[in-house]
Design goal:
- The protein is mainly alpha-helical and about 180 residues long.
- It is about 65% helix and about 5% strand.
- It is built from 8 helices and 3 strands, in the order H-H-H-E-H-H-E-E-H-H-H.
- A 3-stranded antiparallel beta sheet has the order 1-3-2.
- A hairpin with a 7-residue loop joins strand 2 (about 90-95) and strand 3 (about 100-105).
- Helix 3 packs across helix 6.
- The radius of gyration is 20 Å and the shape is extended.
- About 10% of the residues are buried.
Length: about 180
């Protein structure tokens, strides 16, 4: 079996990027930024996102939280178990529906959620520090234009997008903003 050579891999990627057309370069950069944003703002396994949602909206059923996260129930259950094991949330049987559980933050979870909010705020400031205010406004205008066009252009027959399976209608830009507070 051949050893993986990171240097060679990066060299080949750089060559492909150099020879790519402008649309391929834009796509590669947006994809890369998306991965970076997800890692920097959501944290490992979406734990910070769950803490933020519970902090903002208060207790909810595991079923409601799973739907809000737009993930499979098994994936949500795994992350919720990790948060419970870490002593950050409480999971109790739901009084009305024994098939689901009520999820809430405990005091440690609220402190961790508050820290996550502050860390996100600092990260956002760091992430765009290389841009002037004018460049930020220009970038925002371009991104909003792309988002609006893609929302219209790539919706399915039901008016939804692939990444919004199972969610109710709404402007997901506002939803992402809510979840990133």
């Amino acid at each position: 079996m051949k050893n993986f050579n990171h240097g060679e891999c990066h060299r080949k990627m750089a060559e492909r990027y150099t020879s790519a057309d402008i649309n391929e370069k834009l796509t590669a950069n947006i994809r890369g930024l998306g991965h970076t944003l997800r890692f920097m703002l959501e944290g490992k396994g979406g734990q910070r996102r769950i803490l933020s949602i519970l902090n903002e909206d208060g207790p909810m059923t595991q079923r409601e939280l799973t739907a809000r996260l737009n993930v499979q129930p098994g994936s949500a259950s795994e992350v919720i178990s990790k948060l419970e094991d870490a002593g950050l949330i409480l999971r109790e049987p739901n009084h009305d529906d024994r098939r689901t559980a009520d999820i809430s933050l405990n005091d440690d979870g609220r402190r961790e959620a508050a820290e996550a909010v502050e860390q996100k705020k600092r990260r956002r400031e760091e992430m765009f520090a290389c841009l002037t205010d004018e460049e930020k406004e220009t970038l925002l205008s371009i991104l909003e234009k792309l988002h609006s066009d893609w929302e219209e252009q790539y919706k399915d027959a039901d008016g939804h997008h692939g990444h919004r399976r199972g969610r109710r209608c709404g402007d997901d830009r506002a939803e992402h903003f809510e979840n990133d507070k």
